[in-house]
Amino acid sequence: YQGMDFTRCHLVIVGDGPAYAEIQQEFSGLPVTFTGYLRGAELATAYASADVFAFPSYTETFGQVVLEAMASGLPVVGLLSEGVRDLIEQDRTGFLLDAQKLSEEEQVIGYRSLMMRLIEDQRMRCEMSSAASIRAQDHTWHEAMESLVRGYHEVIEAHQPLVAA
User: In 8-120, where do the E strands start and end?
Assistant: First the structure.
């Protein structure tokens, strides 16, 4: 968030967790709104009120919040990591930063640059918004469970002992 143009954007942090108090303190004095944990209509309102969804996490494996954001028509800026990379189409529904080989400073600069591209380019943001909404429709709970079951079957088949006749 360092170096962002505060006249063009306002950060809203939704959620709670072990780093909540530390992040609140770090952003003290900046135009940041902390909502805490939201669900239901309040969460839907938060998505509907946003223009861009920032998701700089390596640890989310399924990416449910990314999918929710996309279903709400939000382009996503995320990190190239498991789960998230399966949802975001680079330059079509959002941006993925490959931060693995970057220093912390380079990660901050790269992520901020991607965010600013979406903030400054309304046409791109609108195109990505539409594409994200359409792409999210491809991911149903039924499809997710079928994929999980297929994965289990593949693991089971790969580990079947060979039977000699």
Answer: 11-14, 32-36, 53-55, 76-79, 94-97
